[in-house]
Amino acid sequence: MYILGINAYHGDSSACLLKDGKIINAIEEERIRRIKHWAGFPSEAIKFCLADAGITIKDVDYITIGRNPSAHLKKKIFSSLKKLINYKFIKDRVANIKKVTSLKSELAKGLGVNEKDIRAEIKHIEHHRSHLASAFFSSPFKEAAILSVDGFGDFSSTMIAIGKDNKIEVLDSVTYPHSLGIFYTAFTQFLGFPYYGDEYKVMGLSPYGEPKYLDKMKDIVRLKEDGLFEINEDYFIHSTEGVAMTWDNGAPFLGRVFSDKMIEIFGKPRDKDEPLTQYHKDLAASVQQHCENVIFHLLNNLQLRTGLKNICIAGGVAQNSVANGKIKLMTAFENVYIPSAGYDAGTAVGSALWLYHQLLGNDNRVFVREAYLGAHYTNDEIEQVLKEANINYTRYNKDEETIEHTAELLANGAVVGWFQGRTEFGPRALGNRSVLVHPGRQDAKDLINSKIKRRESFRPFAPSILREYVNEYFEQDDDAFFMEKVFLIKPEKRAGLPAVTHVDGSGRLQTVHKDVSPKYYALIDRFREKTGLPILLNTSFNENEPIVNHPKEALDCFLRTEMDALVMGNFVVTRKDIQDKR
Questions:
Q1: For the structural domain made of 379-581, what CATH number should be given?
Q2: Is the pTM of the predicted complex or chain greater than 0.90?
Q3: I want to staple 553 with a disulfide (CB 3.0 to 4.6 A). Which of 92, 391, 534, 548 is the partner?
Q4: Are 544 and 561 in contact (CB under 8 A)?
């Protein structure tokens, strides 16, 4: 049985394919179209999934989408009536709903086939139920509490549930207009980060400040005795005026969320080109701290309500790795699972899993520990790209030779673009589409931020660490398959790891497992033998663009930045190769 899952007409459009309940591939549309957070219909992602599996749309039994226009219909109508003065808002929402409900015709047009050739039954799965399913049905737990938190999806922003075997029972939800995601997005905009998906910048900035404005934050998002929360609507405009969301040419744009009340209380919003002051840093710290407080409020009450020790988390707020790293410290949960794509791209997988398990009753769940689900290229395909670009290169016959040479480059301080296997599904590069550096290099942060990534100087870099050494270097010992948690690095280890230690002594780690990522594990292990460090700095292979997908994109990124070497498959290109060619 094939199930095609999609996230469409929203940021981070994506597609995945399940075969008899197992995820066989998944990819975000942005990786192919090269527009960050691409929104709209994921036709290219769908084409990839079908071609990668060697099937056509005629072979697909079901198509799922993590949106259900019928969910909370009465509330949606009432809310729309309140905003009738905003004609454009109503028009945009109606147009979006029409697209979501006409999937078969959109799919036929996108694939260039006759609509009659699509025999698959289409299933609309509510947004947060899709998030819940993406986390629980991929987890190792027979039974677990589940939390989904984001901006909004099908009129809900938060949902709590219990998962057991192949069923999920929804316990409660927070609905429009109350949203923790909207709170975080509003301050992301206020702090001068205007683009869709910029929330992680506030998280990265927050350790540079002190949470001096926590009392004011408590008035904006209020904790409730029932274990949930509510917002003070005076600070936002989404419930009174609506917020425009567009995706011209595929790039999503979210209009201003905060109201004049926020300006009255917190002062003039920062322009994106203004310098960051200590006030901005303290404000970011306050936002992050209160977001964590709300998350732990939700989790602690959910744990008391269910009595369970396992927790699965999804939704856009689940990408807050700083909060994730504190869950076992701040709650009674003992085991945590967060999927590789906790944000909306993951609803493609979640909607398909909800159908397979919840609706069709199948119970052959698979524990998902790897995110390598996207495009892959052979050595011959890589070599063709290098030849067409007239690039000098060295080709090694064995992986061991490639690993040895790359480990030597890294040990000597080189910045290496590392392109191997399948593209990762989710926002993190996990050793297949990564830029790698020696974590002890003092100037690595400034070098990568200014000359390779060309991004803000305050943003941190992540350590990939061999799983067996986590306890030696970090204050918590746990799996982090998808770089989804931030832990404190042990004080005595920080001086030796300047490139991956954030200003507060933390690191967003990826635990590298030999059976999950054998080639990447072997590289780090060989680097350990040369340097004594079982860790590499790992950042995504890109430069203000989606993570590279194709070998040509990797080569282009290498050529226009200041990386020292590019390793694709068993091919190595050095900066000297480029200079010699010129």
A1: 3.90.870.20
A2: yes
A3: 548
A4: no
